[in-house]
## 1
Amino acid sequence: MLGLELVMAGHLLWHASASATQAATCPVQKNARVDVKWHSEPIKYDNNRNTNSLNHTDIDTENPYGTHVVTDVNGVMSGKITFDSNVLTSSVRFPAEAVTCLWIDKVVVTIVVDPTIAIAAEYPEGTCKHSAILEHEHKHIAADLALVKDHLQAVRQAASQAVQKVGMVGPKPIASAQEYKDKMTNYVLNAVKLQMDELYLDRSKRQKAIDTKEEYDRVEGVCPDKAKATQEAAEAEKAASEPSAITAIPGTR
């Protein structure tokens, strides 16, 4: 009878082990939802700083006239593009085996364009110069909006690929669940950040492409030179007030 009991005990042990292994099998991973969205805040306008103050604004645009030419900054678009990423993970636990399976359930990336236009106080609203500068700065904002739209799919794809690479994680010890959750989350967040870094590099190129010498000259030429126009008007008025010279023809009176 002892031999039979040992055989039965061994069978029960194997069966329990097989059941435990089967119970701790991770489920098939469901497709994670990856949501990448964006919006733009209303444009903020600042007409309280003078030219000297704007000259000390930290901007990444290079002087198209060269470093040896000193120019005044009459307007600047100091808008920001920021992003926020959130990763939601799910898990299933097997308390009897003290293990867990983890996967990424949802990723949400929100990109925000927050534009601000500052125009030197010397050019108040309603003046020709103010309008010319404003038109130029709006080009910078339009470039930012187009930039985000162009990169949206790349950000979405980067997040989706990162989720796929993470896949189903486990079975892992329940005691280490938070550690693996952090690793999974950081992997996706880093993938999104790397793609956003590409967006910021492209932004710098696009913004610099707007601030060309030709564009600056165009803005300067939109409005007539007030000093020159005033001088020409004064000269014309003076000429009109002076008596006309009469030349006598010889032999006549």
## 2
Amino acid sequence: MRTLMKIKTAWGIQSLFLCLLFNLAFAAVIFFMADRVLDALNEWVSPFVRPGGPELPADMRMGLAGLMSFMLGIRGRMMSVLAALASAFTLLMWFLVFLAGRRQISRAALHSGARSEPETGWHAPAPPVVSEGLKEQSEGGEEAR
């Protein structure tokens, strides 16, 4: 039977991988959605900024050019920012799930009567078993003396 400490260690590893997979998928969805939004915004703004576009006031042209450079900056930094946020959220979520799981494992162990201390690998030797025949012989031998 696995000890309680081994079960808690296995839970820690499994919960980390589950949180990592969940947040990786979540971050990928957010990244591709944000990339699509930036593409759509770029397609909407680019006809006004490129040469040969409609005649706009100077302030409007400067504002749209600033928006284009802002979108390019976002696109360049989006992956690193999203990776940092996803990593921090993964560790926070894992820590909370890990603590909740350990608490539930401890409660289940108390109800089932499992040992909470880890096994050391050393076991005390069992006391010798004396059969009934040997007991009678030793008792009879003592009386004869």
## 3
Amino acid sequence: MTRYPVINEADRFEFLPREEKISSVLCWRKRVDSFAPQIGRNTDVEISREEDKNYVSYSSALQIIAQSLEWIDACAPVIRSFIQRVTSQIIVQRDHTRTEYYGLSSYNNPGSIRIVNSELLGQSFCVVASAVIHESIHQYLFLLEQAYGYFLSPNLFYSEKKVQSPWTGSVIYCNNICHAAAVWYGLFHYWGTVNECLYGDERSIAETQRIKIQSGFSGEHYQTLLSMFSAHDERFAVTLLTHLHHQMIRGDLVQ
């Protein structure tokens, strides 16, 4: 009788193609550490602030982020586990030159994310949580790139070429598109995962976000990006964008 080796979840993850390493984690069905123990660090997340004498509201900003993490833990422990796995530090920062919220992650500073002008996000835990998740997904993608290589070839990765984001309409560097597609895919599933914890206006926010994200994946700009990457023979970018598009359609049919 032939005996076949037992393949555990970690081995299955290792053999998955990169696009499935992204989609299988960011649909939030399983804890990432249950099948990808080599990804990340699994430490407590430190929330701190950048020194700024003019940032008088930093304590409330720290509090709302801490409360939002507690809210995720209650509503979607799989997502909270993911954040803890890939993010070790959340730095709250105030940018007095800008009048909008934005987040920052760096390939060269793994595990650390910056939430800038977070008070402009309001007091809703689900919205603040989405900002933390957004940057944490970037951290996960950085870990994948460190382990398996960049998503684009050097020619395009280091180029100054810019394209329009299908999800926000903003003009961004084309080397950010693979990250953006994965982030928005993860956020689409985040809003669906926490829907049962939302009430009133928050449910409207979730529905609006899911419609916007879905429109980005199914719109003209997305197909234009696929054509552009195909013309540059960026095989993984084409594979990833095609895979996420198909997953969105498939998810649409089963939801």
